[in-house]
Design brief:
This protein has helices spanning 2-12, 33-36, 38-60, 65-95, 104-121, and strands at 22-25, 28-31. Helices cover 71% and strands 7% of the residues. The longest helix is centred in the middle third of the chain and has 31 residues, at 65-95. It starts with a helix and ends with a helix.
């Protein structure tokens, strides 16, 4: 939220940092990813919530340690996948200005950064 507030303040002051852009929706300005991928991200969160609920049920039912560890591992993977998706979108939407047609070097650098972060997160 702090990032969004800062971006909005900069936008209104007409001092937007290079590569950061917002879309106007009526009288509001929103970061682009909040519009394009919201449903996909919410679906990931809902699946994650289901996994966490399953862990809680397993603990309440005194399930075997192995079963609980498998469920925790799956939930951790889901969290990492969500984080990777958010980081990927952040890099593509806020670090590379699509309206400017990024160079091949910029696109390659972004792809490399995303790859490294996916390895680290995942």
């Amino acid at each position: 939220m702090v990032e969004l507030a800062l971006a909005l303040a900069l936008f209104e002051a007409r001092h937007i940092p290079h590569g950061v852009f917002c879309k106007r929706i009526g009288t509001n300005f929103r970061m682009a990813h909040q519009l394009t991928d919201k449903r996909k991200l919410l679906n990931r969160v809902r699946r994650l919530r289901g996994q966490i609920d399953a862990i809680e049920r397993a603990l309440e039912a005194d399930a075997a340690c192995v079963e609980i560890m498998q469920q925790v591992t799956a939930a951790r993977g889901a969290i990492h996948g969500l984080m990777a998706e958010v980081v990927n979108e952040h890099i593509r939407l806020h670090m590379i200005d699509a309206d400017r047609s990024p160079t091949e070097t910029e696109q390659a650098a972004a792809a490399e950064l995303i790859s490294v972060l996916r390895t680290y997160i995942g």
